[in-house]
Batch of 2 targets.
Target 1
Amino acid sequence: MYKKLFIPGPTQVRDEILQVMATPMIGHRSQDYADLQREVIPKLQQVLYTENLCFLSTSSSTGLMEAAIRNCSQKKVLNTICGAFSKRWHEITLANGKAADPLEVEMGQAITPEMIDERLKTGQYDALTLVHNETSTGVTNPLYEIAEVMKNYPDVCLLVDAVSSMVGIKIEVDKLGIDVCLAGVQKCFALPPGLAVASVSQRAMDRSAEVKDKGYYFDFHVFLKYYERGQTPTTPAIPQIMALNQQLDDILAEGLENRFQRQAEMAKFVQDWARQYFALYSDERYLSNTVTNVKNTRGISVAGLNEELGKRGAMISNGYGPLKEHCFRIAHMGDLTLDDLKWVTGQIEEILGL
Amino acid sequence: MYKKLFIPGPTQVRDEILQVMATPMIGHRSQDYADLQREVIPKLQQVLYTENLCFLSTSSSTGLMEAAIRNCSQKKVLNTICGAFSKRWHEITLANGKAADPLEVEMGQAITPEMIDERLKTGQYDALTLVHNETSTGVTNPLYEIAEVMKNYPDVCLLVDAVSSMVGIKIEVDKLGIDVCLAGVQKCFALPPGLAVASVSQRAMDRSAEVKDKGYYFDFHVFLKYYERGQTPTTPAIPQIMALNQQLDDILAEGLENRFQRQAEMAKFVQDWARQYFALYSDERYLSNTVTNVKNTRGISVAGLNEELGKRGAMISNGYGPLKEHCFRIAHMGDLTLDDLKWVTGQIEEILGL
């Protein structure tokens, strides 16, 4: 049975977009493809508020996290950690043989500019990783305040995982001076998975030019060589790029500010609902506009709830990792509407007899 | 205007498969996804004649070429080169900071077992890369004879790019002792691009366990960790995996031997046609069953020919790289039929007034 997705990725995809996925194929070295890519890139720059290069990577977001690490550090990386995905960035950094230190806070807490400042002062680091919106905990780190502090460290590349926030929460890449801002298209873009995108600054490109043993698949300078011809280095996920082109039109037609506002309204609704019937897991000061982590204060069976929801055509997520039965997560990102959230929370109330 | 693709990837995709690409999304950590992956893997093993692990990689084939290098060498790689894609493997090897030597023959020629034996005798190498079917030249290297020689070198991993041959030309992975056999789905599988697959032997997994600084995204042991749960390490290209599942059913329904036979018949037809009106570029002993490189003996404008074909709803490829106007390539792989090839060569005859 078909289930409407309220999980934090892959998100619910509209039928119009699914139909674009069924477009007949074109050659990736053809004029048709170059025309497509040259339509997509300026729109991507627009939604990211940037004039930086914007690369299309046939990989998940994790691939571009690896890319950011491989291209942007030759000294030591400071990996900020506030949940599962920011922890993964630390793992990736070490797996690539790069020197790295963790800066870790408890799950549900946020990374603050003060913590970062204190560590960067030591002068040991040439890159900092930050997950903007921790999908595992429903925390949005204070990116604008952190970016302000980063301006005091011009030799430290700011690498931002915006996987579950890009086009859902405002990120002005150029104003903030973000060197690599990456995301997969299956979250706030509301497309099927298989493609990741990143903006890459001149500073990141300059750093990359100095770094050795970057590999080939994720080398930003290999991307650049083909980018100028409106191409990617290797055969890309053409269906997802066609879908992205359509969706960027639809996002711009909705209006970015309207889109951010819609996510914020959905978030407020779900947060209020969670406060009424359960509690919020994460620090109230940093609640996410795209996903809410509800604390299972009633000791319900999260797996059982999801099974019942499945019968009614919906799916939410359990808590991440160790939080599996202690929390459940409701995503309110992408093309979902307030009515969708009212419906799914209504279903939960009915199932649990709240 | 819609063009039927006679290019060597992406290949023509049937409407039934395009419709599968439009399936509503499912979560990649859901039971539905695990069921899907557990359907796909045994069928993939069947078409590869292997009991090895078969991994699904959200990347192009180039990503898995990088994976093979990163996981399977800690000494020195011998990169056999007979065209653009085998040359890329040498580039990738060096870009990953691995020691490597090229073993190069002229474009249009094949790699022979004797050449390989002579180099491996030196005992310097722990991995050998081979492109089975060189898409850039239309040459199929003698994989069965090469695999025979490789049996004398049990410490050398045999890494095979079967990008434009897998499920188009018979490759019995286990019988041949291939350690990594990789391909993208947009060639002989006739699916939209965005997914690559590889079989990986126990020897390759053992080697990988010893190698350091493999990175995360292409680490075979990270793949294995999730494989056992019917999952991939990160969000995969779900639409392409759904399409692969359907297409594997269709391939097995056609029958593998029938499929190989169909490609061979199409190849023979195009080769005969090329001999009649032009000439063949590559060594007659090693002509490919999936793509033919036609030598432009008439000095026609290849770009002009393709433009005229475009108006009639078809697309072929020019010669690769330096061969751009000196050759043109007609692919006869995937779900194309002899009638399709008769039609497109007929169109070429009409356009050129042959």
Target 2
Amino acid sequence: MKKVGVSILGLGVVGGGTYKILKEHAEFYRATQCVDIVVESVFERNKERVEALGIPPEKLASNIAEVVLDPDVNIVVECIGGVTDAKDYVLDALNAGKTVVTSNKELFCKYWHELERAAKHHNAGLFYEASCVGGVPIIRTLLDGLQANEISSIVGIINGTTNYILTDMAEKKISYSEALAQAVALGYAEADPAADVEGYDAAYKLSILASLAFHTKVPFNKVFREGITDVSPTDIADGAALGYALKLLAVGKNTPAGIEVRVHPAFIEKGHPLASVGGSYNAIFVTGDSVGDIMLYGRGAGELPTGSAIVSDIIYAATHTELHYATFKNTAAPDKNVNFVSDFASAYYLRMTVADEPGVLAKIAAVLARGNISIDKLTQRVSDDGKATLVVVTHMTHEAAVKSAVAKVTATGLAEVNSVLRVIL
Amino acid sequence: MKKVGVSILGLGVVGGGTYKILKEHAEFYRATQCVDIVVESVFERNKERVEALGIPPEKLASNIAEVVLDPDVNIVVECIGGVTDAKDYVLDALNAGKTVVTSNKELFCKYWHELERAAKHHNAGLFYEASCVGGVPIIRTLLDGLQANEISSIVGIINGTTNYILTDMAEKKISYSEALAQAVALGYAEADPAADVEGYDAAYKLSILASLAFHTKVPFNKVFREGITDVSPTDIADGAALGYALKLLAVGKNTPAGIEVRVHPAFIEKGHPLASVGGSYNAIFVTGDSVGDIMLYGRGAGELPTGSAIVSDIIYAATHTELHYATFKNTAAPDKNVNFVSDFASAYYLRMTVADEPGVLAKIAAVLARGNISIDKLTQRVSDDGKATLVVVTHMTHEAAVKSAVAKVTATGLAEVNSVLRVIL
């Protein structure tokens, strides 16, 4: 039976989960995968974590060189996070010819070229299933399950924290800050939630997934990003009345005009399979030219789901000696011009406060019409203070046209525009 | 660039779709997969199919020997269906050392051992993603995406025809025979629908999927099977009023008592992700010990979705030279005793017609109680003829206990039992 030595760098949530899974399943993997996976060492500065997992002290490496120079270590699992130490350690491991399995989406999306170059040069494997959507094997699916397809679109709920907050806001009709506080208290959000609620985490993942789906390296800085911090329960309720659910969506499209990648809150029709993905669950909806629509749904985070992705990568690496790397138009030909679309097409939801007097609606409609924006749905409600709330859902239009129309409506004092949200049709 | 020669046997729906995909994507696969896939030959008795696809006559093989002896053919794609010719041809190809890609669930589940033995003996690959759930890459996911997990349960809607019929019955409140007639007219059901509506198709697929999920070869004849021909719109409506959707479910469980595999109509709570899978869509809900719950959703049939699975297998075979076969407890040790559970645990829905008179309900409840069956929900409605309809949903109990209780209720004349359906909790 093939024996494979593993070293785990970082024993936080994901590294700890990985250790637990490997320990509890060693006999199972020998029986079902014909591979003997042995944790040769761990590297972790926090001794309490090492003790809590019951790891014998002699397995604790005192420095990274001990790990990468150990001939018994075949696979280095990086679960440190961040881009400083993690990058150095991953490069050290690859340069020593060790296969690397990582859950680090930020590191991977920012330094993909560099890591892959080192891996290829030293004939090492590089696996990153756990970097995107926890236990859901979306990367393996894109590489080895849907590769017959030209993929035109991926739309996903790929951040569990924001989906938990938005689901809570919708169900309990509470504010963003109330829902955030509850999510922090329950461990669904970090004390500093910026990476999640500002959409960075989803944008890192989208950069990776869109690259694989569209065979073009999509840099993180090309992803349009808008978080959920300004989402109001009023919008969620108004959208619900029109038949929509509000989600933080990651949208990637491969269009004749170029690649379009964006992360923002968006309304989606309640009949769509993504609309009912609630709580901390994630899902990715992929459209391919042969397969049609397909969706993967599951836990996007957590020690055991993410550990499942890491260990599946370890087993894959242990049982396949051939190395495979995804092919990108702009890797083989770095100068190849890839166009990124910033003025993307979408339908829009606009909530405005207007004076409740004759002619206002006609003037707003005229501004929209001059911007070639046509109205699909419109509702109006009058409040006690003589103001009216106008909710408009447009037909398909473009981001720039809507921004321009909103600026005109605001500048001319016709209305206070409270919210502009995209609607996925 | 690696060149791979393919021969397609059978140009019906799936074989024709495979040919179209390969033809239209040849340049795409060269660019993204670095592989040049060439259809060297086809084998098909119906000349019209060959012409309709625009295949040059010289590519039409006149017999199977021409295909399997052709040194330019590396991969033989079997899309003939059935188990007579298809089995001989697949064995001929494997014995000639050709890798085989097949969509033939019946052939595969009935002769898996024999085909795999031939493949291993002749160092040939054997791929069967297209045999289960069309374009949804559930087999690749079980083999290479979730292999870190001990899987306890797979529950799926894995037959598009029956899901189309049941969705139509629920939405239009029509009978089974009306819905079947419409499905046949629209091409969603075959003129002879038995393989679908009697549950054979789903049982073939469950035999394959449960084998992979539980690492134990699950013979087709161990699958409990009940079709949808007796489903009535009354039950669908009564179930809907209680919050359930009716689906033909394939259920596989790995329990301490043994493996449980069954295909039957079942109620499932409307909040469950499977409940909203409508029309001809399919979905499979998998529970693993690390990943938790995960679902794959997509088109379970059709020329292009199933072709997507076949071509993804072709690309996988073309780009991986190492051969991998799943490991089964009862392959390495054929005598290994695998226990199959026939008296499975479930909740039940019972619809009965009773005389609308005092004491009847108490007597029925007493029969159920003597069988250790406790009642979760109960509704009663009285019709004009002095009869009452009683709908009972039980808590978890066992198949044998319910059958015995139903026999007692019937034998004592307490009620006419109109329907017995399982409820998935």
